[in-house]
Specification:
Elements (H helix, E strand, L loop, with lengths): L4 H34 L9 E4 L4 E4 L5 H5 L18 H4 L5 E2 L5 E2 L4 H10 L14 E3 L2 H14 L11 E7 L7 H20 L7 E7 L2 H10 L4 E3 L7 H11 L2 E3 L14 E5 L2 H15 L6 E6 L4 H14 L3 E6 L6 H9 L2 E7 L2 H14 L4 E5 L4 H5 L9 E5 L10 H12 L7 H21 L5 H9 L20 E3 L1 E8 L3 E4 L4 E2 L4
Parallel strand pairs: 6-7, 8-9, 9-10, 10-16, 11-12, 11-13, 13-14, 14-15
Antiparallel strand pairs: 1-2, 1-5, 3-4, 15-17, 17-18, 17-19
Helix pairs in contact: 1-5, 4-5, 6-15, 9-10, 11-12, 15-16
């Protein structure tokens, strides 16, 4: 027994050393990942580089390798530049490379790769293309980047395994939205169950992590990373959802929200238009009722939501409106402002304020005998319309991103209904179920197009490639490199205080501004 003790201790020491070595390698690869994808070094500071013959200094995310070469390192053409494949397998090909303009060189090794990174010189001693920056990296940082490139082709993005792909969503399980959350959760599980019964996607089983709030999501998705967020509930918490996704580099497919925001995150793909685009829908409809070139318009907009004003002004400029005056929504309760509009022969008002403010506007307009057509993007001010005096009959309109009766003519819409009935899902929240179904349709189609070797970058590119895609009980959806609203447009309904909503338009589609 005593003779065996040294061997036992030796085995323990070797095991500890091996574990420490593995941890050190993992730490180095993590540093390499940050340099490659985020443009940050081991301390979290922006890496620095010099660009072009003038040695212009640039720093941070602007010089992240993945910006040009792609998150998978295989290069992606952009602006006439074709960055090369920089996976280690390609860099070290024994027969070397032939670059643009006939430049030739042999394979890279660790030493020549370090020189290419810091001096922009290839293995043959030639200057690399001027689009390649010269990086200021320490020896250890270059080694970390090299280790990351050696592993890059073997790495999966978070949430992707050989046999499974994990998606996440955030849906309330308490509070006023609990029934909507329950309906959406049931539809997501039903859809994914149906897909898995058919063999999954590219041989992978699709799994769904459902959490009730952002706090739980932060903890759960750290323990079990997810590939993307599908149809999370974001009503009232849109900025928090954007921050959550950005910090984790998560694509968000069709968040359930009322607000798209002035400058949508490129990581978030919305299903329906927000208030700003619905205001444009109403302007389109108003133009069909009368010549905008001969009619003065006014718009009341919540001051924080400058995006509505910007969208209306851009749309009016494109349509050559006679004039558009934008006022803060609070001025709808100011007699002087309302009287001035009445005396200025304003014939139509687009109102993107509160229910209380619209009620004040209608009351004062009625007392002044002013009868403009009033258009509201979304249902926030509909209650004031239903309480309007009879003199405003046939002058009140609201724009919605979808109809109350779900579209049922397309194959995907019929598949939605078949799945809903087949799984015995309650129809009391069919609109929310349709929303969740469309989000999953978009997600799964993009996964199919991205292929077996899926990455977040390829996935986002696949979503961008969807054009007039039939996603379910919705209008066809289209995305693109600069387009993040799939069903960009809406429907207009008249508000009749006696009879309720009355559809007055078919789908009104918009072009991105």
């Amino acid at each position: 027994m005593r003779a065996g003790r040294p061997l036992v201790w030796l085995a323990l020491v070797l095991s500890a050393l091996a574990a420490a070595g593995a941890r050190a390698q993992d730490d180095a690869i993590d540093v390499g990942r940050r340099i490659f994808l985020e443009g940050r070094n081991a301390s979290g500071e922006p890496i620095r580089a010099l660009f072009g013959q003038q040695s212009t200094p640039i720093a941070g995310a602007a010089v992240a390798c993945g910006n040009c070469h792609g998150a998978d390192g295989r290069g992606r053409p952009e602006g006439g530049v074709v960055p090369p494949d920089i996976t280690w397998e390609d860099l070290t090909k024994p027969y070397g490379h032939v670059r643009a303009a006939g430049r030739r060189h042999g394979p890279y090794d660790e030493r020549s790769f370090a020189r290419a990174i810091t001096e922009s010189i290839d293995p043959a001693g030639q200057r690399i293309d001027g689009a390649m920056p010269r990086f200021s990296l320490s020896v250890s940082e270059i080694e970390a980047l090299t280790q990351y490139l050696k592993r890059l082709s073997q790495l999966h993005d978070p949430g992707v395994a050989d046999s499974a792909l994990v998606l996440g969503t955030i849906l309330p399980d308490r509070g006023p939205a609990v029934e909507v959350g329950t309906a959406m959760r049931a539809m997501l599980h039903a859809y994914i169950g149906d897909i898995n019964e058919r063999g999954g996607v590219h041989g992978r089983r699709v799994e769904l992590e459902v959490v009730p709030d952002f706090e739980t999501a932060a903890e759960r998705f750290t323990r079990r990373p997810v590939f993307a967020l599908v149809s999370p509930y974001g009503v009232g918490r849109e900025p928090e959802l954007a921050r959550f996704a950005q910090e984790r580099r998560l694509d968000v497919i069709a968040p359930f929200t009322l607000s798209v925001g002035r400058e949508p995150s490129l990581q978030t793909f919305y299903l329906y238009a927000g208030v700003a685009d619905l205001a444009r829908v109403l302007l389109d409809y108003a133009g069909r009722q009368g010549d905008l070139k001969a009619q003065r318009l006014a718009a009341f907009v919540d001051e924080p939501d400058a995006g509505v004003a910007d969208a209306l002004q851009a749309e009016c400029k494109r349509r050559r409106c006679a004039g558009l005056e934008v006022l803060p929504a609070r001025s709808a309760a100011e007699p002087g402002a309302v009287a001035r509009l009445a005396h200025s022969s304003v014939g139509a008002v687009i109102f993107a304020g509160s229910d209380r403010e619209l009620a004040a506007l209608i009351g004062m307009a009625d007392r002044l005998g002013w009868r403009p057509a009033i258009y509201a993007p979304g249902a926030a001010a509909a209650r004031a319309m239903f309480a309007a005096p009879a003199a405003f009959k046939d002058l009140l309109y609201v724009a919605f991103p979808t109809r109350g009766d779900l579209q049922s003519g397309s194959p995907a819409a019929q598949a939605f209904e078949k799945l809903r009935q087949g799984r015995g899902l309650d129809a009391s929240h069919a609109a929310a179920q349709g929303f969740a179904y469309a989000a999953m349709s978009i997600t799964l189609e993009a996964l199919r197009r991205a292929g077996r070797d899926v990455s977040r970058e390829r996935f986002a590119h696949a979503v961008e490639g969807l054009y007039r895609f039939d996603a379910g009980p919705t209008p066809p959806v289209s995305y693109g490199p600069g387009r993040r609203v799939g069903a960009l447009g809406g429907y207009v309904v008249a508000v009749d205080p006696q009879r309720g909503f009355r559809p007055v338009s078919d789908w009104i589609g918009l072009e991105p501004l």
